Structures are given as C-alpha cells and as structure tokens.
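Example 355.
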Amino acid sequence: MKKHNFSAGPCILPQSVMQKASEAVINFNNLDLSLIEISHRSKDFVDVMENARSLALEHLGLQNKGYQALFLQGGASTQFLMAAYNLLENKAAYLNTGTWSSKAIKEAKLFGEIIEVASSKNANFNYIPKEYVIPSDADYFHCTSNNTIFGTQMKEFPEVNMPLVCDMSSDIFSRVLDFSKFDLIYAGAQKNMGPAGTTLVVVKEDILGKISRTIPSMLDYTVHIGKDSMFNTPPVFAVYVSMLTLEWLKEKGGVAAAEKLNNEKASLLYTEIDRNSLFEGFVANKEDRSNMNATFNLTSESHKDAFDSLWKNAGINGLEGHRSVGGYRASMYNALPIESVQVLVDVMKELERKG
Ligand SMILES: *Cc1c(COP(=O)(O)O)cnc(C)c1O
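Predicted structure in complex with pyridoxal-5'-phosphate:
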C-alpha cells in the first residue's frame, strides 16, 4: 500500500498523475515513442509547454493581464540570483523569514545593496515579522510566502509602490490570493506542482528591461519570454508532469477547492497539536502557522522512541523535522489526502493513551 507521504520536498503528487506520467515515458500520445526521446520542438511537446504555461496563469487568475509564465531550470535557488540580475539596479528590500529568504538575500547582495527590512532570525524564524518599513526608493521588495523549514506562512502581503517579488515554492496553488499584486512569482516545482527539475516563473512583463547591466541569455527573463520558454532544451519530463498536476488541480476545482481542503487538513492537525499535551507547536503565533508545513515537537523527549515507531508502523513517511528546527514536520501539500492527516492524528492520540 502507498505510504502516507508527509515529505517536505520532493513530495507527494497525485497518484493519477504518476500513472499517466509513467505511461508517457513508455508511449507518449500513442506516438510509439517516449516523451523523453522526442524533439522538444515537436508539436506534441510544444503543446505540453503551451498548455502548462497557460494552466499556470489560469490557476493564478493572471491570464491576459500582462504576465508570462516560464518553466525554467536551476531550481528556486537560481531565481534567488536571476530575480536580482534582472531587477536590481541600486538597492532592493528583503524580508527575512527563514533559510530560503536568507539565501535569496545572500545571492542578491552580489548585485547591489540589500536592505533587510525585518528578520525573525533571533527567534529561529518561529514568527513572521509584521511591523517594518520598506524604503520607497527600493527597486523591488522580496518575500517568501511560506517558510517550508520553519512552518510559518505569510497571511498578508504589504502594499508596496514597487515590484513585489515572491518565492512561493512551497505554497503555490495552495490558496487563493490576489496574485495580480505580485510582479514576479517563482516556485521550484517539487513542492506542489511536479518533479524537481523545473521552476515556474510568473513575471509581469512591464517590470523587465529597466536595468542597465547586460544579462547572460540563460539568466534573462526577456530572452526566455521571447522564445516561449524554449530558449534551450526544456526539462521535458518535469514540465509534462507539472502540466498533468495543473490539469488534475483544474478537475478538482482549482486553487479555491485546494485551499478549502488544505484548510481542513491543517485545522485537523493543529487542533490535535494544541489539544494533546504530549505535543507543542513550533510557531510562536498561531496566525503565522503554515497550512502546508506544520512543525511541532514532543513536550518530552522521553516519548520519542514510542512516537517514532508508532508513526512508522502506521505507514507514515517523511515526518522528521528539518535539522535546523528538530522535532517533526508534517508537509500537507495539495495532493496529500485528508485521510493521511487523520492517520497521523490517530497516532498522536494513541501515543497519549499509551503515554
Ligand atoms: C525548497 C525551497 C527552495 C529551494 O528550491 P530549489 O528548487 O531546491 O532550489 C526555495 N525556496 C523555498 C521556499 C523552498 O521551499
């Protein structure tokens, strides 16, 4: 039987998507050829890329609003530098909410002055800073919507008079937001969309072309837009599986339906974390808790062996916390069924009974 997969990333994808993807590796579109052995310039693959790009914009409500969707390589980590390469002339403002924000700041510093408007580092990133001032002369403001490692999530985004750039790697397509407030969104596929190997970039075209430096072609958003996200050989398998997941999401009712289910899953688990005296949440303020990655700990380490063997025997995978936080982390991405969360909650109750 398939495990209850709470892995933080790469992570669970819909089983029907896995099935279709595996069939396409053997025989794609009844071509008697594999998806991964045909030309990326063939109509069959060009259709995949175009469908994936348009589904991404559709799910975000950004069709015909001046945005372009690209499927690039190099992970979200390459976007840390690519965003700065394309947008940073003098200085940019960053909100530091965790390891990924810190890495984005480190890369951007190679291109200009970085103002860290606020940071929760002093508390091991267990909250989202709310009071901060963004310098009005910054070239853009960058934030991380969901902090995969620490289990915090931004519920509000500041109103800014400059491009708003957001790393949405671990909560893209998980909740309804006014995505038109954002000018550049990027997300590594492997948290909620597809296999590792491609990164979704959604960019508002009118923010580009404003800086004076020359940009290497592979790192230039304008070049990729001009080539319809086919400047060089795209990661065909990762794009195809992303397309299948976006189709699956549409069948399920889109981002709004995903959000409803994600709220139910998160509420089921957080209710138990708060109720069960053997557990405590890691995040300081409940309003900052992530609906994607729930971080929690045992109140006494003496229960560790018993809890670990209970959840492993229940068929749960990937519950270990990140090394910089410890404890446990339950990642509940779109494709995780609520039944899996119920299994985890039942195990937590069982530990209490045996306690
Ligand atoms: C996983 C993750 C990244 C890193 O993504 P890569 O594709 O491995 O480079 C960046 N930001 C966030 C929020 C993440 O969760």
